[in-house]
Amino acid sequence: MKEVLIITNYFPPETGAASNRIFHLAEGLQKHNFKVSVLTPLPNYPKGKVFEEYRGVFKHTSLESNITINRLWIYASNSKNKLLRLIAMLSYSFSLIWFFTWNKIPKTVIIQSPPLLVAFTSVFFLRSKKRKIILNVSDLWPLAGLELGAFKKNFSYKLLQKIELFNYKYADLVLGQSEEILAHVKSLSPEKETFLYRNYPDFEVKSTRHEIDSSKKLKMVYAGLLGIAQGILKLCENLDYTRIQFHIYGSGAEQHAIENLIKNKPELDIIYYGEVTRQALHQVLTKYDFTIIPLLNRIYGSVPSKIFEYARLGIPMLYFGGGEGEDVIEKYELGWVVQPSNYEDLNKVISKLKLSKLESENRNKIQKTAIYNFDFESQFIRLMDYL
To answer: Which chain positions lie within coiled-coil regions (predicted)?
Structure first.
């Protein structure tokens, strides 16, 4: 039985796209007769605090679904202070080095990037002619950080670019979740072998039945990270609520500001539910008329995994993020597209939504499209040829 190690910053019980993606990858490998182990920090995302049941230990090892999970110590923080964030990444990197020193590492290693520094630590210490390094790139750092305003083109940025290039150079294979990511990798390392590995969900689908009550407001939902990049606070402030009621699930940096906005401006038709599990979310999402997938600014290489998950649930989408995600929405007729930060156009599109596009017939069409085109198992079998 072939062994494979996955190194990641995110893994269940943490929530979010990155955690789900790596879990499905590990589970898929295990089902295809790989002996899978995972290296990940003690659970702490997105609150920046180690979950209560994992506190007070340096390392926690468990066997879950026949996958060995090694959870290592981290100085957890989601502070906006760049120094504290750097210390957090360095702490996990030191834990990784300790693990590499005292444990036998399989010949095949899959490394999640970003975080860039964690990926660099893993690539640097594990690179070997006898070992296959697979880099799973979900976002382009430091470029994405520059576009988000987190970085400036200074010495630190140039250093991060060199780290990025090092990671690509010593990876035997690069997995990218978008065509833009693969194009970027090829521009820096033309001979590098790449594979498009979308973040397709892997769960059973149920037929959907949904009818619109034309006498009431449309129910629009957002579920996910309430971070700066998503811009949910600004979205709340700029929506026209004449025709919609806005429902929000999730947590993150903007959570308290959103709660205060709802408290101070009760005339805004917003309902906030907090954070729920993915399983519970799947049960409630289908009752909403449509969902919105926003990014405050277009981020090169980004294709939100929500697109594929919501399509499988049969939920019409209003995509407000630009880039390659727009192409997916339009190509597969999954909903509507509005340029990011154009709130005037967004409100116009919402005001003209046709009810027929939100009801059962169109939802079933979206679901069938997802089942046929966004199939986890088919993509995974293609990936097996590279392993």
So the answer is: none
The total number of structural domains that make up the chain: 2
**Domain check: are 193 and 299 in the same one?**
no
Looking up residue 222, the CATH number of its domain turns out to be: 3.40.50.2000
Structure confidence at residue 214 (pLDDT): 67
SS3 165: helix
- Global pTM value: 0.86
Domain range spanning residue 291? 218-373
Of 6, 171, 17, 177, the closest CA to residue 96 belongs to: 6
The span from the CA of 160 to the CA of 305, in Å, is: 25
- Element at 132 (helix H, strand E): strand 132-137
E runs forming strands in 208-298: 218-223, 244-249, 270-272, 290-294
State residue 28 phi and psi, 5-degree precision.
-65, -40
pLDDT digits (tens, 9 = 90+) for 45-91: 877 888 888 888 889 999 988 999 999 999 877 766 777 777 877 88
Look at the chain and count its residues: 387
With tokens 């996958």, the residue in question is 67
What does DSSP say about strands 335-337 and 317-320: parallel, antiparallel, or unpaired? parallel
**What's the token pair of residue 169?**
């150079």
Span 132-169, pLDDT tens digits: 999 999 989 888 878 777 778 888 889 999 999 999 99
Tokens describing residue 254: 């903007």
User: Distance between CA 343 and CA 351 in Å, rounded?
Assistant: 12
